[in-house]
Each structure stands twice: as structure tokens, then as C-alpha cells.
Queue: 4 jobs
Job 1
Amino acid sequence: MTLDKGLLIVLSGPSGVGKGTVRKAVFDNPDTDFKYSISMTTRKKREGEVDGVDYFFKSHEEFEALIEQDKFIEYAEYVGNYYGTPVDFVRETLEKGHDVFLEIEVEGAKQVRDKFPEALFIFLAPPSIAHLKDRLIGRGTDSQEVINYRIQEAKRELELMNLYDYVVINDSVDEACRKIHSIVEASHLRRSRVERTLRKLLLEADN
Ligand SMILES: Nc1nc2c(ncn2[C@@H]2O[C@H](COP(=O)(O)OP(=O)(O)O)[C@@H](O)[C@H]2O)c(=O)[nH]1
Ligand SMILES: Nc1ncnc2c1ncn2[C@@H]1O[C@H](COP(=O)(O)OP(=O)(O)O)[C@@H](O)[C@H]1O
């Protein structure tokens, strides 16, 4: 029985689709009661970022030592840096009955599926490739060459969409947040219906 445990929610999708933006909006909503799992990364801290709030910033050596100690649910190399989800926080928080939210790229999400098949997988998709291109250009963090590379990669990443439980189109950020909240609510309802039915049938089988 898992009802007393929290739900693991995984938001993923191609680079530039708006995962970070949507995640921030989800957590800006005071009604959100999921716990955000702060990732570890070897990338340099950007201006305004705070260690332990945006990420736990680690050196390459520290990160590799943590990999050796099996301290990640998943980790991936992304644009030359490591990113990973710390296992202890996620397990402890789920055990306490809280929902945990991960915002990670697609390779990492694949690894989570193997370890937490019962997790809820939400794929954030762009309204169109033209939107994706515009967002990558608009973000202003990548050269034209890197943007072209990311668009090529996005095709491969989009093909993974059918492995997810739900697809949310990131047209408006507010609408995407609302959809994520309703998906989580529906998943809780489904989970409690399944568990109640199972409990009833098992009790009957024992008598
Ligand atoms: N696999 C994995 N990906 C992560 C994790 N944390 C963040 N990411 C992803 O890493 C990518 C780069 O993140 P970041 O460096 O913050 O840059 P930006 O989101 O592209 O501005 C994004 O696609 C994040 O979703 C993690 O713990 N594991
Ligand atoms: N729904 C949206 N409409 C318009 N622009 C968006 C939307 N969502 C995100 N963006 C913009 O797209 C760019 C990429 O978003 P970001 O959150 O960095 O993507 P990701 O984390 O998936 O790489 C940012 O400049 C962001 O402001």
C-alpha cells in the first residue's frame, strides 16, 4: 500500500520548452504543496542564484564521489555539466507523505522510470518547433550554432513523449501550471480508488 506515501512528480521535456519557467510558476502558487527536489550540479552558479536554493553547487570531484556512493536517483551530463537528483531527500520526503516534484531533462527522467515506475511523468511540449526556436533565441543564452544543435536534439527528445503519462503543451505558462495541478489531483484520486478497491478485494480473499 502506498497511499500514506507521497507521489513523485516528474516534469521533463526538451531544452528551451519552458520547464524552468513553468516549475517556478508552479512553486510561486501558494496552493502548491509539493516539495521541490533541489538538484545538484557542477555548473557555475549564475548571478542571483543561491547555493541550496536553486541548486547544490558541487565540484566535478565532489559530484563524481557522490555518484560512486550511489547518492543519486538519476544523473545526467548536460551541456558539459553534471546534474543529479539526490536520493535521500526524495525517499525521506515521500516516506513522510509529501509529494516531491522533479524538473529534469529527458535522460534523467528515463532513469527515474526504472527506479520509481509508480511516479507520475509529465512531458512539457512546445506548441510548435517555431515556438521552441523562438524561445531558445529569446532566452539569449546560446549561440546560433548551439540553438541549431538543440533543435536537432529536441526532435530526438520529442520522440520520448509517448513514454510519459501526460503531455502538457506549454502555450501559456499559467495554463500549463493549472494543467499540472489537475493532473496531480487526478493521479491522487486514481491512486486512492485503486488502493481502496485492492484493499477491499484482499480483505475479502482473506475471509
Ligand atoms: N537529469 C537532470 N536534469 C536536471 C536536473 N536539474 C536540472 N536539470 C535540467 O538541466 C537542464 C539545464 O538546467 P540549467 O543549467 O538550470 O539551465 P536552463 O534551465 O537551461 O536555464 C534543464 O533542462 C533542467 O531541467 C537534475 O537533477 N537531473
Ligand atoms: N509559455 C511560454 N510562452 C512564452 N515564452 C516562454 C514560455 N515558457 C517559457 N518561455 C521562455 O522560453 C525560454 C526557455 O524557457 P526555460 O524555462 O529556460 O526552458 P527549459 O528550462 O525547458 O530549458 C525562456 O526565455 C522563457 O522565458
Job 2
Amino acid sequence: MTETTAEALADRVRAGELRLHELEEHAAADVATAARRLLVAETVDADVDVLGEYAFDAAAADANIENMIGAVQVPLGVAGPVAVDGDALSGDRYLPLATTEGALVASINRGCSVLNDAGGATARVTKRGMTRAPVFRVADVAAATALVEWVDDNISELRAAAEATTNHGELVDVTPYVVGNNVYLRFRYDTKDAMGMNMATIATGEACALIEAETDASLVALSGNLCSDKKPAAVNAVEGRGRSVSADVTIPREIVEERLHTTPAAIAEINTRKNLVGSAKAGSLGFNAHVANAVAAMFLATGQDEAQVVEGANAITTAETTPEGDLYCSVSLASLEVGTVGGGTRLPTQAAGLEILGVRGGGDPAGTNADALAEAIAVGALAGELSLLAALGSRHLSSAHADLGR
Ligand SMILES: CC(C)(COP(=O)([O-])OP(=O)([O-])OC[C@H]1O[C@@H](n2cnc3c(N)ncnc32)[C@H](O)[C@@H]1OP(=O)([O-])[O-])[C@@H](O)C(=O)NCCC(=O)NCCSC(=O)C[C@@](C)(O)CC(=O)[O-]
Ligand SMILES: NC(=O)C1=CN([C@@H]2O[C@H](COP(=O)(O)OP(=O)(O)OC[C@H]3O[C@@H](n4cnc5c(N)ncnc54)[C@H](OP(=O)(O)O)[C@@H]3O)[C@@H](O)[C@H]2O)C=CC1
């Protein structure tokens, strides 16, 4: 490739010689990125040079972005270290949190410090499986039933077709849903340490080819929305998607009073009236206060697909007083889609976020690093729930944000 400058490359676009998305074929990725930034800046007559101050080679983002013009930077903080007793993650860990919401890291940090005072949080992954649900058109409901039976009879053949596309992925099961002459087949895979959406999609594509070859069903769309990816959906809340993960703690009453400035009974009442009854009245899928905050901040810090915060916030928080008058609190995230290989985890700053947790790359055995990341996020969510419920109990929410968030 001959060397060229960003200005010269931009000139060729202005002349109509090159299209904006073709520049990497004619220059190094950083030069192509700078040329596009010049072209975008001149359309608004603004200085956007700050977008060019990024900390990695643009070529490293080749599989993550098209038409790159630079990078936005989100401040990264840490909460903790927090003591975690998980199946896949144990010990004291800092939680990396990327956010622009002042007071959020302070809040999760307070929650972590209270978890430590109570002896740490327990976390467990209870279910795993990334799903893809194609929709097929069939003649009528009789044909729909026949297709469901065919799938049941030929699950080994479907498994072989799907698993031929991947070294790590395993087809766990296929759940059928019939709506008139529409058949949705929800394929669920163990994707090990990958979040698995590309893996599951490619594998399901091969299984669909077999179904079309062997039956009268016609594939309408490889994703029929019963998967359900990047949309609020009850199917994920009930059946799970990615990792289903729970974390909990019992906090002695004195610690709640001293560190959280409220009581176990007040936190339990707020949780019932706000997170359970209030959410039910609102028709919400999120029976929690702000699990999305911990999920989003840790997703950004560790290179997860940020659109999947939608499913990540499918969580229920419980809080109750124990017979001894202490506080039991838990959070259960039904559909946390996380990976420690592939996707955005390859980018250098996101890989560093995974390193802070000690979960970068493939686990031994495969799948344990993604389990560990899920457990860490669940603990961060628990810390955030405790701190916010307490701030509501002590009436500190608005003053906290007036002090730290403005
Ligand atoms: C702000 C606090 C923590 C003060 O809380 P406090 O108890 O007055 O603070 P403190 O000075 O006594 O410190 C207690 C601990 O908080 C942490 N802490 C304290 N300050 C910092 C700081 N600067 N940086 C890092 N950590 C900090 C730290 O762990 C510290 O312990 P230490 O380490 O000193 O032993 C508390 O009032 C709080 O957590 N408020 C709640 C804020 C919150 O949760 N915001 C979340 C976002 S709200 C939202 O987005 C969603 C919402 C609300 O709309 C959802 C809904 O509808 O519910
Ligand atoms: N295609 C789609 O419809 C959608 C795609 N996405 C995007 O998909 C990407 C995530 O897909 P995903 O499949 O996770 O990632 P990648 O497409 O980046 O693939 C990751 C690959 O890593 C390999 N691998 C190496 N070590 C391991 C290990 N220990 N465990 C598991 N896999 C391992 C696997 O190869 P092998 O399979 O050969 O074993 C796996 O397929 C994100 O960029 C996301 O934004 C998001 C939503 C929808």
C-alpha cells in the first residue's frame, strides 16, 4: 500500500473518486480514520480533533467498527475491592466501571464496602445458554406440529450441523413455539467464554439449511425475535439468556444503621413498595432500582455489546429482615449476555478492564471466565441496589447527586 496523507485521501473522496467506507483499502487504518474525521468536521465547520486522541491502533478495531472517525472516551473508575464468593470468581476484586453519571461509582463503592463489612457477597451462575430463534413459514397448524415433531426426531442431525461451524459452541436444546402457520425454534447454545451471538447465529444458519432441505418449512428470518436480542422481552426474563446469575448477602443490622444510615426494615419496605409493587404497576420487566447502571458501566469497561444492557437489566431485587433483625438482600439477573473472548473484548482498553477482574480471554475449563465476569457484575449490581435503596431510606438520593453528580 502506498503511503498517503489524510488530507490527500479526503481530497479523493471530495473528488468522488473514493467512497467514505473504502479508505482502508488505500491507506493505513489510522490515516483513513483521520481523513474521515476531516470530512465530517468540514460539514459542520467544527473542531472534532479530540476524537482522534485514542489509545489504540485503529487497525485493532477493524472487526468492531466501520467508517471509523475516532473514539469517544468514557471515564473509568473502580469500586472495591469487594470480597466475592462465587463458583468461578473468588477473592477480593476491583470492579471496573465506565460511566458519566456522577455519584454512581461512589454508590457502588459504598455498597462494596458494606458487602465487605458483612463478610462479602455470594454469587452463582444458575443457567447458561445463548439463543437464536429463526421463524419458519409452514402451510398450517398441522404442518407446524409436523415440523415440531421433525425437530424432536432429528435433534442429533441438527446438533451435528450446528456444531460443525464452531470449535467451542454446543447446542443444548431447541424449544419450539407455534403461532398459526409460524414456527419459531429457539436454539440454545453453551457458548463457553464467548457472549456467542455471532457463534449462535452462524450455527443456527446451518441448522436452518438442514431443516429447509428436509422439510416443507420455509425460513422467513434467521432471527424471529423470540431469541430475544436487544429488546425488552419476557421470554428472557423467564427462560434466561446468556447467563442467569444471582448474588446475595446478609448484613448485620448495626452495619446497615452505621454504614447505610437506615434500617433493615426500611430497606425491605422500600424494596417491596418500589421495586416490586411499583414495578408491577408500571408494567416493568425490571423489578429492581438501577441494575442497568452496574451492568452498563461494567459492559462498557469490559467490551461487552452495550445494546444488551436491555436484557442485562432483567433483574429482580429482594430484601427482607431476618428473624434476628438483620438484612437479607439479593439480586437475580435473568439474562446477562457476557463474554471474555471475541467482540469488543479484543480492544486494548476493554481487555485491560477484563484484566482488572482477572478474567481476560478463555477460561480453564472454557466458560469459567465468562461465568466469573457474570458473577462480578451481579455483585456490582447488588452493591448498587443496596446503596441506592439505603439512600432512598435515608433521603440522601437528591443530596448525593447535588454533591457529586452536578
Ligand atoms: C453518595 C453516597 C455514596 C454518600 O454516602 P455516605 O454514606 O453519606 O458517604 P460517606 O462519605 O459516609 O462514605 C461511605 C462510603 O461511600 C463510598 N464513597 C463515598 N463517597 C465516595 C466518593 N466520592 N468516591 C468513591 N467512593 C465514595 C465509600 O465506600 C465510603 O466508605 P469509605 O471507603 O470512606 O469507608 C450515597 O449517598 C449514595 O450512594 N447515594 C445514592 C446514589 C446512587 O445510588 N445513585 C445511583 C444512580 S441513581 C439512577 O441512576 C437511577 C434512579 C435513581 O433513577 C433509579 C430509580 O428510579 O430508583
Ligand atoms: N450475528 C449477530 O446476529 C449478532 C452479533 N453480535 C455481535 O457478536 C459479537 C459476539 O459474538 P461472539 O460469537 O461471542 O464472538 P465472535 O464472533 O468474536 O467469536 C468468538 C469466537 O472465539 C472463539 N473462541 C476462542 N476461545 C473461546 C472460548 N474459550 N470460549 C468460546 N469461544 C472461544 C470461538 O471460535 P469457535 O466458534 O471456532 O469455537 C468463537 O466463535 C459481538 O461483536 C456482538 O456485538 C451481537 C448481536 C447479534
Job 3
Amino acid sequence: MSAGGGARDLAEAGAVLAAEAARFASFGWMRGTSGNLSVVLSRDPLRLAVTASGRDKGELTSADVVLVDERGAAVQGGRPSAEAALHARVAASTGAGAVVHVHTVASVAMGRRKPGGILLRDLEMLKGVGQPAHGVEVRLPVVANSQDMAELGDRLEAARDPRMPAVVVAGHGLYVWGADPRQARHHTEVVEWLLELELTGR
Ligand SMILES: CSC[C@@H](O)[C@@H](O)C(=O)COP(=O)(O)O
Ligand SMILES: [Zn+2]
């Protein structure tokens, strides 16, 4: 995708996001229209393609995408995700090229169990988020939910650990990011795997 974020780029991004969403929906991670995805189309000015609000995320087409600015406001397209401003904030503060938000049972359950954050160590799967498998403890932060995206963005920025490309939002779900949609997907699958493991209470 070029830096300009034109109509063709937006449709291309929509096709990518629709495919990613179909995959996550098939896992049961985007039930009942929940969740949203984004990809950065340009950095200066910041422009993201974000999934449209309220759609069944298992049935998206390339047209179900909205171009938004650094505040999450629509620049082109219909009504962006209610959480578009948080996607823009994550992309700006972490440098990520793609952001995933899913409503998984494991993230909400573990957020309840460990409101101060989820400690992870000695797991081969940690290599999937760029950490050593052994000897290093990594914390997956848990932040309180809010319907105010500015407040939620402040909490996420304050809590996030640069070693972990994800944050659990208590009573809500999971935010994960990566350099591009493919890496964000891999990070999401790894973090969700770690949460599911912790939930088994090993
Ligand atoms: C059951 S939908 C919950 C929504 O409020 C929200 O949390 C969500 O993830 C989807 O919002 P959307 O505006 O469709 O991107
Ligand atoms: Zn949500």
C-alpha cells in the first residue's frame, strides 16, 4: 500500500482486514459484531483503515472499512469502529502498523483473575512475541475498561510494557499490535494461547 491512503489502498486494506476478521471470527473471538481491526496506511499524517462499526466481523467485505485520522475521526467512508480512536492511539504510541481487538473469553476471565497484570515465564510460546523462552518474566498488563477512548488510551499507554505487544482490557477483551496485519495476527494468536494456558491454572 502506498503512503497516500487513496481509494484503492483503502479497498486493498479492507480486503486484508476482512480476511483477518473472518479468521478471528471463525475462532469465536469476534462474536456478536464484537472486535475491530486496523492497518496504518500513512504515518505523516497518520491515517488508518479501520473496520466499520457494528458489522458482523465474520462477514466483512473490502467495502466495510473506513479511513480515519489520528483522532479516529472518519476521513473517507462510513461510520468507523467505536474504538477507532484507540487504534490510532496505539498505532501512534507503539509505532505498530496494525492493531487487533478481539473479545475472547480467556482475556476477560484472566483480567478478572489477575487485575494487576498476568505474569508469564518459561514458555516456548513467549518467543512468538519476541521474548526468550526461559529465565525472563514478562507481564501482560490489565487496564480498567472505559467507554471514553481518550481515557482508555491514557490507561493503555501508562500500563503497556514494551516487551509485550498486547494489553488486556478488563471486562472487555484484548488489544494486540504488530508491524503489519500478519504479525499482529501472530501476536494475537500467541497472546491468546498464553491466556488460555494461564486460565487452565497450571
Ligand atoms: C458486542 S459489540 C461491543 C462494542 O461496544 C465494542 O467493544 C466492539 O468491540 C465492537 O465495536 P465496533 O464499533 O463494531 O468496532
Ligand atoms: Zn470491544
Job 4
Amino acid sequence: MSAATQTSVLEASPRGYKAREPAAPPVRRIVKLGGAAITHKAQLETLQRDVLRRVCASLASDGGGGTVLVHGAGSFGHHPASEYGVARGPLSDPHVRLGFALTRSSVTRLNGHVVGQLVEAGVPAVGLSPLGHYTTSNREVSASGAGAVAACLRAGLLPVLHGDAVLDEQLGCTILSGDTLVRDLAEQLRPHFVVFLTNVAGVYDRPPEEEGARLLRRIVVRKDGSWRVAEAEGGCQVDVRMTADAHDVTGGIALKVEEAARVARLGVPVLIAQAGSEDGALACRLGPRAAGAGATGAAAPEPGLGPTCGSEGTCSEGPAGTQQQQQGAEPGGGQGAAAWRGTLVMLEEEGPGEEAAGVPGAAG
Ligand SMILES: Nc1ncnc2c1ncn2[C@@H]1O[C@H](COP(=O)(O)OP(=O)(O)OP(=O)(O)O)[C@@H](O)[C@H]1O
Ligand SMILES: C=C(C)CCOP(=O)(O)O
């Protein structure tokens, strides 16, 4: 008998009583632990143990209840996936089939490390692979594994999923990124907030190793899914450029921003911060309140967060995942005494002006 059947409840219906699936338990947070943070991306299957240890200790110390953890692949998975063309399929090709197995073998090894570290810290964590629970169709999720995740949560366990090689109805197989998993789980489970932890402080206006890179402090997402930079270090005049490593098969930071925008569009605030740092730990513990926003992410920033960009066209804007165009400057934006450093992605508050402007494609 499955956990879902054991805990099912009886519900009145016009024809008597029937069993129904128990409601999904309240989910406090979904945390994505980036592969770039817990591995050395350029060195095959090499862990950043100190970062992994710090993140697990911090999750353990603020209570793992109502938490779903998803991790990326880093140097466990991206290399074989790229070498064997696993994202394109087909599985009828023996070369791709071997790559599929090698990719899974690698990423499940990393999952073992993450779960092992959490269990050592006293968290009842269990590894849950997307293969077998998730299916895609042309890389889009067609069958969600959220039910299995909810069953683990109901049982008091902390499910630990990972980006994976999965079966695809059109391509035979593909790679399902941890970032996309997070978005699907947010759609299905509606957590209070989502955190993406990675190896840099958040989303910058250009690759952060480039001179003069400026952290985007707040991105607001419109109901049509497009987004704009509402607050950035050094002002809002930004032209956002994102790059990914050559062997990255899932799109790097650009996919993360795209999926973060899709989560925020649901009304679920998203924080992007550095794994292993105090900012990352605060994001996981407090959600949007770490960034000085209200619990929904929609309230005005608290004093100390610094000036924000005005609503009269001074902020960069454009559809998620595309290059942003500069529209004006607000010198000093984001230079306040903010304690928290990271990127908050949240749904734009609907004002009378926006309604009048007729934001297209309003969706939930
Ligand atoms: N504009 C940008 N802002 C922030 N990071 C950027 C930008 N452009 C490129 N990057 C790079 O993106 C990387 C983070 O994205 P990536 O997808 O590799 O992270 P991850 O989710 O931690 O890893 P994985 O995909 O393996 O789980 C950083 O190492 C950073 O150097
Ligand atoms: C390469 C594999 C197996 C998964 C990729 O997941 P991501 O690192 O979260 O994008």
C-alpha cells in the first residue's frame, strides 16, 4: 500500500464517500543548490566539500521541515551529457544510451554526497531521482514527479532531487535541469519562497568575473512573464549579458533567470544568492524578508535597502532570458546600507496604471 493510500481521507460526494488524495503538505521553501557552487565545474567530479558542508549545516540548523532540495550537476553530469549528446537523444543510438547511463551514474554519485552530508548533519534526507518520476516532451515537463515529492514531505522526509537524464516522448531522452525541476515543483507545490544558491552573489549585468560587473538587486516580473531590473548596484542603467560554460548542457544562468521569472510570476518570491555565504543562509532561513521585502516579496523594501528605480521608465526591461536594453539611469540606486546581498525576483505589484496600460498575457 502506498503512502498516499495509507493517508488518504474520505470525502463526501453526491454518491456517498470516496477516497481522495491527501492535500500536499505546506511547503515552506524549495532550495536549488547549484552545481557550480558544490563542485569545481572545470574539474571532473570534484566536490567543493566546504561549501556543501556549510549549506547542509545551515539547512539543518534552521530546521529542514517543509523543505525540498534540488541540486544541479556541476562537474558531475554536464561533461558526459555534453560529450555523448544526451540532451538531443535518441536512445536508439548506442552511443547516446551509454552517455545517458554515464550521466546518471555521475549525477547520482553527487546526489549520494549531498544526501550523505545532510544525513550526517541530522536531517532525514532522501535522494529522489527524476528518472522514473518525470517525463518530458521535447524538453518540456509532460509528467511531473511532484506527487512523489509530496509523499516524502508527508512522511516527514526531506526529498533531495537533482538535474537528471530523463526519458523524452519526442527525443527519446534529454537533460532535465534542476532549475526547471524547481519551477515545476513550485507550480505544483506552491512553496512560500524559492532560493537558488550558486557560486556567485546573484545575477549581474555581465559575467561577474568581468571588470565593473554590477549586482542586480531586484528584478520584477510582469504578469506576461517579461521582467525588468528594478534595482541594481550603481544604478538601474543596465544592459544584462549572461554566458554559460562550453560544456554546460542546460543554459547556465540564463535558464536560471528564466525559470526564476516563471516562479515569481506565480506570486512565489525567488532569491538568488551565494551558496555557503551568510547571504545564502539568510535567504534560506528568511525568504524575501532577508532582502527587506514582505513575506510575499511584494511589499516595499525596508529602510536601508537603498533607493530603488522609479516607475517612470527608468529601469531596464525586456523579456526574460534576452538581452536587456538600457533606458535611463538612477545614480546611486541600491547603494544603501543593505545587509543582504543577492538578487530578489518578485512579481510586480499591480497598480492602476499597469491595468490601464493593459499588460498582455496575464496568467497565474
Ligand atoms: N550575468 C551573469 N550573472 C551571474 N552569473 C553569470 C552571468 N553570466 C555568466 N554567469 C556565470 O553563471 C554561473 C552560474 O550559473 P550556473 O548555471 O553555472 O550555476 P549553477 O546553477 O550553480 O550550476 P549547475 O547548472 O551546474 O547547477 C556563474 O559561475 C557565473 O560566472
Ligand atoms: C547534466 C545534468 C545531468 C543535469 C543538469 O542539471 P543542472 O546542473 O541543474 O542544469
